[in-house]
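Hi L.,

You mentioned the student needs an example of a multi-chain input paired with its predicted structure. This one should do, with 495 residues in total across all chains.
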Amino acid sequence: MIVAEVWWIGLIEAVVIINVLLLAFAYTTLVERKLLGRMQLRYGPNRAGPFGLLQPIADLVKLVRKEAFFPAKVEALPYIVAPAFSAFTALAAFSVVPWGQGWHIGSYYVNGVVANVPIALILFFALGSVGVYGFIVGGWASDSKYSLLGSMRTCAQLVSYEVSLSLSVLGVILLGHSLSLSDIVNKQIDSVWYIGPQFVGFVVFFLAAVAETARAPFDLPEADSELVAGYHTEYSGMRWGLFQMAEYVNMITLSALAVTLFFGGWEGPWAPLGPLWFVIKLVIAIAIFIWIRATVPRLRYDQLMRFGWKVLLPVATLNAVITALVVAWTS
Amino acid sequence: MPQPVDTLKGFAVTFRQLFNKPITVQYPEYMRPVYPRFRGRHRLWRHENGLEKCVGCSLCAAACPADCIRVVAAENTAENRVSAGERYARIYEINMSRCIFCGYCELACPFDAITLGNEFEIAEYSRDDLIYTKDILLAEPIKQVPVADPDEFDTPIPYYQVHS
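Structure written out for the whole complex:
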């Protein structure tokens, strides 16, 4: 269901969403540090402001004022562009995620999504795949062995897990008969949340999403104990901040996609709160990401590859095939 | 072998910690009591009649492995009696940026003139400020550190002998 929307409303929405997303990124870092701290019997940041609430702002000020270190032998253009590129694709991917039904305000119609495109899901994965190049190129351009190792791992890991990620949502596409995320949510509101019929798909999706965002236990591209900081070893200041932003925004965006595809998007179990339900589900999804990080130790590299290709991929394929058969049978 | 049940148990463990009180000591506001034998900032002592205990023998300087103590002695005279002995320390300096807090000076001193106190917050902004003169060492330390109950911790019999 695509309803025409005046172009400048979309523009305003885009500006608002980007700012909300950046704020969410800043406070996700705080929530992560707090939650990790509490899970390890620490307090986490509690000095800057009440409960450490000003910590993200202090971090931002520090990062902006910090020298953006520039090693002598870097490939200048890719080195500078890579973090901005990754951050851009991460932010852009959120534009197709719907957070509300859409509203009539006066004579205008406001979509519950920045860009209501019929191929939203493909666009999402396309942007995600392109964003990986930022990490790979950034690590390569740094001219450092740790960066190069990090970007090689990024290359191998993100490419192999992207396959499982894309295949795992195939079942949802088949059930929803659409690639538009708004349509998929509307379908779920009419029937059931797809976490039920697509539970296997959800598990594969979530594991692949953790790997895709390069977070523990799949944080091999930036394994601090082995590779210093992986692909962003040679970055500092706000360039490093942009990489960090890309990583966290990717996490938020993939959580949002999980909420949209498997948990009915903006639909709530009782009160019609609209976007608030979306936010609540999103926060829970992010908390689970953090919980996983606090619990599971990092995988070894061969374990990572084996898990991706020998477990997730066959399961995702099987899930897609079975869903296809069932959908063909019943319709 | 993957062990999914054990992994889930691990998740339960981390989740349970959320409801426990963190064990972090909030240091600047709450200072943990140091043990009674803690070796911190040095202190020079006086006799009860006001005379300095230090007689300027330089044994502490000789014992110091970090070579951070400098003593220049001078004779006591009838009109200028500083210490109880024949001589006194005209200059007594400890370079705190070199001190390793081993306590050998305390052991070497024949008159218990120098001891190691409990204060450990001795950071300064300048290296020059870390050279403590005699006046600084003779005065009461500005910062005071809580000391744990000696009955509880300062056992005369070593722990490993009691519990073996």
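You could point out the following to them. Residues 71-98+117-330 of chain A form one domain. Strands of chain A lie at 103-105, 108-110.

Best wishes,
N.
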